[in-house]
Design brief:
The complex is a heterodimer of chains A (about 120) and B (about 700). Chain A is of the alpha/beta class. Chain A is about 40% helix and about 20% strand. Chain A has a five-stranded parallel sheet with strand order 2-1-3-4-5, with helices on both faces. The termini of chain A are close together. Classes of the chains: A alpha/beta (about 120), B alpha+beta (about 700).
């Protein structure tokens, strides 16, 4: 069965880039546009991986990550956080919130895909 | 009748015997005359001495007035050179003392002291005159000058006093010498001669009356005066040289008596004046020190007021500062001020024209009330009267002819304040005005500084926000370009691949610029704080080497590392230090076409000293400082050619400085460049301590 990835991202363009990228390699993408929706969908959809932006409306990426990692049934889902840029210090905060990996903006689609494959090695269409 | 004819008449027969005696009397008289010459010369010196000391008193009074004269005349274009008239007179008196007969007899060290202190005082005077001649010097400088000049004058006065004492001793010695001459057996010889002339009994009466009597009287009188009995006078009415000698003696005794009688009184008076002017100058000096050493206006005004009240012999006083917006005087400092008085001036503020303070402000001059019971009633005066105050003096504080406040002192006895006191308080008022002006300027400056800091912070915040907003769309551009390149949207021709690569390059360069601007603005806004961890400088250098290996290999450059494995661990922000190293090594590779790039590090005096060297084009000496400034790549065309933002070194410098380190460059054109930076081994502790 195809792997399902929850993408929590408020920017339409970023969502489209990720959508096109994931579709090209055969992943199924579930989309959320704010942190709260992200937490909700993580619980209801149980995705195989979550891609979490940091600057999000309603609930930011750190808090959303913390809440998902606080749920025993969801704990195992790998979360890759997209930080604002390499030296911002966001990566440390993301690790503190419980994220499994981070990708710094501007993320290159290739680089993002490589990080996803670390957690879902057998996947891809 | 002359002595010689008297003697010839009285002693015609034993003339031979008497000849010897006549000679000895002549010798005696000459001795006495020389003593009298000395004594009258010494007297002239004493007079000159006293006159000089008196003049010094006048000069000191003038010196004391310099600050208040300055206050009075500062608006004038030129100020008359101070002291000139009295000074030349003093110089001529000192000349009289030096040139006198008596001076030769005086202990050289005493006279030297006078000459020395006079030349020192002259030098002080010259300098003070120079300050005066400059016209608009500052008040505190003038006060300092006045203090020095006064000290020199005091020293001169003391030397002159010592000279007077010395002269007195010399006079005593001269008188003693005469007595010794008298004690020689001249009189006995004359008496023997008299006995020998027993036949001339009839003439001997004349002889005794006319010669022995007067000489004995002279001898006794001189001895009495010598013992200090200056009231004693010699009564010789012989009509000859003896009488004139006696008259000289009497004159001398009278002069000495007058001089000595004056001396005590003068010394006492002088000591009083001295103490007063010294304390006035000291107070002025203390206040000017206070003005220059503290910006605490309240403290300065308190000090001025306390000194003003003490020197004005006043029971209390106050300094008010004028608020031109509310048109009222606010109490700024109070000295021995009753609670009810403080409450009264707080509740009913004094306005221009109101009460004594308002009047002095309106008239821009000192105003006083010598008897409070005799003026029109005023609520404040009633309070003063109740507290026992009988006289008031108010002086305006003026700055550039504008009233900035007022100084008021109170006295519990009826009577006008002396001109001296008024002038002194005017000087204190001028100092208060300076202090108030300083405080205002300082406050203005601080306000400007706060505004500037806020403006700078706003600018940096704006830049930080803008950078973020710029990055978001740029991310999308780069993302789409890469997806197209990777063929996700369909097949891509080689030509399109090339253009897409250009889009990627330019996009990344723009992103680098935006990130660098964000970094810089964060540092300048104080938002970038170090996140210190323990790091190994060798590990950081190895990381940078492995990150740049590909770049170096592409240009056939050797990458060298010389960092000992046993260097102690450091504490600092490892990511930021890596950023600095990456920037330096990246630059080195960029600007080197052949040879090598190396990283070296060692420990020296508690710091890492890190060097990044290359064998590249080098940087001209005149450009070496500029490279650390924003957008100052040596050749602006190289920015495009070599890539880079022109901000990397500016950021590196700030990061090193945030670690309390230092960065610099050494380079020779055509040979290569070495960038050095230092990092305290434990950057975080220093930072916390700072």
């Amino acid at each position: 069965m195809t792997r399902r990835i929850l993408v929590v991202e408020d920017q339409e363009d970023n969502r489209r880039i990720i959508r096109d990228l994931l579709a090209s390699v055969g992943y199924t993408m579930i989309e959320a546009v704010d942190g709260e929706a992200g937490v909700r969908l993580a619980g209801s959809e149980r995705p195989d991986l979550i891609l979490m932006d940091i600057q999000l409306p309603v609930l930011d990426g750190y808090e959303a990550t913390r809440r998902i990692k606080a749920e025993p049934e969801l704990q195992a889902i790998p979360i890759v956080v997209v930080t604002s840029y390499a030296l911002s210090g966001d990566d440390q905060k993301a690790a503190a919130a419980g994220a499994d990996a981070y990708v710094a903006k501007p993320f290159s689609p290739r680089q993002l895909l490589a990080t996803i494959r670390r957690f879902l090695p057998e996947a891809g269409g | 009748m002359r002595i010689r004819s008297k003697l010839l008449l009285a002693m015609a027969v034993p003339a031979g015997l008497l000849a010897a005696q006549i000679a000895s009397v002549g010798f005696f008289v000459r001795q006495l005359q020389s003593a009298v010459t000395f004594i009258s010369s010494a007297h002239a010196v004493i007079e000159a001495d006293f006159d000089a000391v008196e003049l010094i008193g006048a000069l000191r009074a003038e010196v004391k007035q310099l600050p208040s004269n300055w206050v009075a005349e500062r608006d004038r274009e030129t100020v008359a050179p101070p002291l000139a008239a009295s000074w030349s007179e003093l110089a001529s008196l000192i000349g009289v003392i030096q040139a006198s007969e008596a001076a030769r007899e005086i202990e050289p060290s005493v006279l030297d002291a006078v000459v020395q202190t006079f030349s020192e005082a002259s030098e002080e005077y010259r300098q003070t005159q120079a300050v005066g001649a400059n016209g608009s010097t500052d008040l505190n400088g003038l006060i300092e000058r006045a203090i020095f000049t006064d000290k020199a004058l005091v020293a001169l006065a003391e030397a002159l006093d010592a000279l007077a004492v010395e002269l007195r001793e010399q006079l005593q010695a001269a008188v003693d010498r005469e007595r010794e001459i008298h004690d020689r057996p001249i009189i006995a010889g004359i008496a023997v001669g008299g006995l020998a002339l027993v036949l001339l009994v009839g003439f001997s009466w004349l002889y005794v009356r006319n010669l022995v009597g007067p000489i004995r009287a002279l001898q006794d009188g001189a001895a009495r005066i010598g013992r200090g009995d200056l009231k004693s006078r010699i009564d010789v009415k012989t009509g000859d040289e003896l009488q004139s000698l006696a008259e000289h003696f009497n004159q001398m005794a009278a002069d000495l008596q007058g001089s000595y009688a004056n001396l005590e009184g003068r010394v006492e008076e002088r000591t009083r004046q001295l103490a007063r002017s010294v304390s006035e100058l000291e107070a002025l000096g203390e206040v000017s020190r206070a003005i220059s050493s503290t910006l605490d206006l309240r403290a300065v005004l308190d000090s001025i007021l306390a000194h003003a009240c003490q020197l004005a012999d006043s029971g209390g006083g106050a300094i008010y500062v004028y608020d031109p917006v509310r048109r009222q005087f606010d109490l700024e400092a109070g000295y021995r001020m009753g609670e009810d008085l403080i409450a009264a001036v707080r509740e009913h503020p004094i306005r221009p024209g109101d009460a004594l303070i308002g009047q002095c402000a309106e008239r821009r001059e000192a105003v006083q009330i010598d008897d409070l019971t005799k003026v029109l009633p005023h609520p404040l005066f009633e309070l003063h009267l109740k507290a026992g105050v009988r006289a008031l003096l108010a002086v305006p504080l003026l700055h550039q002819d504008q009233v900035v406040g007022a100084l008021v002192v109170r006295r519990k006895r009826v009577g006008a304040f002396a001109d001296d006191t008024v002038r002194l308080l005017q000087t204190f008022a001028a100092q208060s005005a300076i202090a108030i002006q300083n405080a205002r300027l300082f406050e203005e400056l601080e306000q400007k500084g706060r505004e500037l800091a806020a403006a700078s912070r706003h600018k940096s915040e704006f830049l930080a926000n803008m950078s973020h907003e710029l990055r978001t769309p740029l991310n999308a551009v780069l993302g789409y370009a890469e997806l197209i390149q990777d063929g996700i949207y369909g097949e891509v021709s080689a030509k399109m691949q090339d253009v897409l690569e250009r889009i990627q390059q330019n996009g990344r360069h723009l992103l680098g610029l935006i990130n660098a601007v964000l970094d810089l603005s964060k540092i300048e806004a104080g938002q970038l704080t170090l996140q210190p961890v323990d790091y190994s400088i060798r590990e950081l250098a190895l990381g940078v080497i492995s990150g740049t290996e590909a770049l170096a290999a592409a240009k056939n450059l050797a990458l060298e590392l010389e960092v000992a494995a046993d260097l102690p661990p450091g504490r600092g922000d490892d990511r930021r230090i890596t950023q600095v190293l990456l920037n330096l090594v990246g630059n080195a590779i960029k600007f080197t076409d052949a040879g090598s790039v190396g990283i070296r590090a060692h420990v020296e005096g508690g710091n890492f000293v890190v060097a990044v060297s290359d064998t590249g084009v080098g940087i001209a000496a005149e450009d070496q400082q500029r490279v650390f400034e924003e957008f100052q790549q040596v050749d602006s065309s190289s920015t495009r050619k070599k890539g880079g933002t022109g901000l990397g070194l500016a950021i590196a410098k700030r990061i090193v400085e945030l670690h309390r380190g230092r960065i610099w460059v050494e380079s020779t054109l055509g040979e290569g460049t070495t960038f050095y930076f230092t990092l305290p081994l434990r950057a975080d502790e220093r930072e916390e301590a700072a």
